[in-house]
Amino acid sequence: MKYPQRTSYNVAVRNIDKFVFDSILKQGIPATQKDPNFLRVYNGGKAIVYEIEVGSKRYALKCWVEDLGSLKFRYKEIDAYLRSCKLPYFVDFAYIEQGILVSGEKFPIVRMEWISGINLKDFISRSLNNPARIHELSKQFLVMTQHLHEKDISHGDLQHNNIMIDKKGEICLIDYDSLFVPKLSKEKDNIKGLPGYQHPKRNTLRKLSSKADYFSELVIYLSLLVLSEDPSYWDDIKDEDDRLLFSKDDFLCPKKSKVFKEIRVLSPEIEYLVMELEKSCKETNINNLQPIEKITKAYKGETKEWTLPSKKSDGINHQSSYNHSSKRIDWDVFKTADKVHSEENTNSDLWEAAFSEDIWKKLDNVTHSSKDIKEQISQSPGTQASEQNSFWDKFETLWDKVTSSITSLLNIFSNIFKK
């Protein structure tokens, strides 16, 4: 079955109550740019996403321009399984196979809750003056991984763009195309993730696996601990688009890695985790890797005690200190530090600058730099698109103008004949 072109979806979305068959979205209004003739649209390699406003809530309506193949089956299973698990790390999500009518045919859609948040690297950038926040997030991350393992779930592409932090400081995972749930054990592992997060042998994994995240979980957890103990490492990685603390070369040859050597001296716990990461790098079979909770529970050495920011410094009550427990400690990520460590942290309210970090900033497997995406999404609506905009953005703008003009002419002729 041939899927509609991107612009073909516009008519159906503009008449969402008639042509979209989801009980929630049918009640909504598609968001527009400042010029109401132009819908607010986000284009990806295989999909197009519309922002839909339903009362006080926002949703993402995702439509495809290519045949999903096995993804159709995957989304059905992911949808059903996540509903049964009811974990807090996934957004409200529904796959509707015959969800939208375009040119007389019905096509699948996904409806997702729209998450306004910042990704993992932006959170780190805005927390450099409060490293205890980074450390607390590492503990939340550890708890999340254990919950995922208990439910036999792996994300498949854990990395900073797919880990969002919401206003309350809660972790939310996005982009479910690579997700593993138990009924998908025979499906191909097509999405291999970013090299700065993945095991050197990840490409040898043929089928989706519940163990696909074991390596990247250790990488992320260790990176967060290091950055909380020595935020100066941020200067080395802030402009990197495909990694946190480690690169692909570090994983290929840990003994020659500068960062492996340097971070060993930070604390006994980090030294232990570096040794475990080295062991994991040498493992030739991903299915033999150990889950992170087993690795961390085996550590019996010293742990660093941290003090969270006081009420005086950030306006929120906190406990005076914490050790390595999984107890949730609330803090408000609206608040920023008194000093600014990097040029990126220039807004007094980090969420005013976070609009472009919404859930659909990264669609499918299209590779963009964060700078390009921010420039594209934050561009003033209704103005001439820049040369950096994609072909489809330009085509969509032209097509919307044409269809808008035709509609206006038809209305004029209709009024004439009525008279």
UniProtKB/TrEMBL annotation:
The keyword rRNA-binding does not apply. It comes from the Bacteria. GO terms for molecular function: ATP binding; protein serine/threonine kinase activity. GO terms for cellular component: cytoplasm. Residues 1-286 form the Protein kinase domain. Keywords: Kinase, Transferase. InterPro entries: Kinase-like_dom_sf, Prot_kinase_dom. PANTHER family: OVARIAN-SPECIFIC SERINE/THREONINE-PROTEIN KINASE LOK-RELATED, PROTEIN KINASE DOMAIN-CONTAINING PROTEIN. This is Protein kinase domain. It comes from Phormidesmis priestleyi Ana.
